[in-house]
Design goal:
There is one protein chain. With 201 residues, the protein is an alpha+beta fold. The chain contains five helices and eleven strands; from the N terminus they run βαββααααββββββββ. It has one domain: Nuclear Transport Factor 2, Chain: A (Roll), CATH 3.10.450. Helices cover 24% and strands 29% of the residues. Strands 1, 5, 6, 7, 10 and 11 form a six-stranded antiparallel sheet that branches. It is globular, with a radius of gyration of 17 Å.
Length: 201
């Protein structure tokens, strides 16, 4: 694969967003309002490094959108592997996201920063792997049923960083990607961690 895609993904440049009204960040009084909704890029199924990068960008943006709005439908529309999708659609996480959608809980403007660590992915036949590093800024508070709680004493922001690699396969004209925002367990590792709808999960 050709091209150079090493570095931070600029979501606003790579993706188009559907906007309705003026965006209002979350506060302790209300959840985000008029959150821009990422659109599926027409290039996300191209068999190229760009196509894979765009597929990754949409999946990450879909997760960020779900955490902030509770709408997980974009995750289901992404090229994220079903195993990884199910992490966000298991009963416990789905219940939390539904509470977000219903205005019963929200986080302090969750934000992803995502970096591809090499120019292009490594490949072997139709299988690909791409080293990546990403962090999730959960903000400083979480609101549940009208009660705002600091994530840590003192009200400091909570950021979690994840380093590893994602795996991708190109089949039937579509990318299928695993490890976009979950950690693939490497041989010899005892545990794995991933971002979720709550910084406390």
């Amino acid at each position: 694969m050709s091209g150079s895609y090493k570095g931070d993904i600029n979501f606003e440049s790579v993706l188009e967003y559907e906007k309705s009204g003026t965006f209002e960040p979350a506060t302790k009084e209300h959840a985000q309002r008029n959150t821009p909704k990422p659109k599926k890029p027409s290039t996300m199924n191209e068999k190229s490094a760009k196509g894979l990068r765009d597929s990754i960008a949409y999946a990450v943006a879909a997760v960020e959108y779900a955490i902030n709005t509770g709408d997980y439908s974009l995750i289901q529309q992404s090229n994220m592997d079903k195993v990884e999708q199910n992490y966000y659609l298991d009963p416990e996480t789905k219940e939390k996201l539904e509470k977000v959608r219903n205005g019963k809980r929200w986080v302090d403007n969750a934000k992803f920063t995502y970096t591809l660590d090499t120019e292009v992915p490594d490949s072997e036949g139709e299988y690909y792997s791409w080293d990546r590093t990403f962090s999730v800024d959960y903000g400083a508070f979480e609101v549940n049923d009208g009660n705002a709680e600091e994530l840590v004493p003192g009200g400091a922001k909570v950021t979690k960083k994840f380093t590893g690699r994602l795996l991708a396969e190109y089949k039937h004209g579509v990318w299928e990607v695993l490890g976009v925002v979950t950690q693939i367990k490497e041989e010899g590792e005892e545990s794995t961690s991933s971002p979720s709808a709550s910084s406390k999960v």
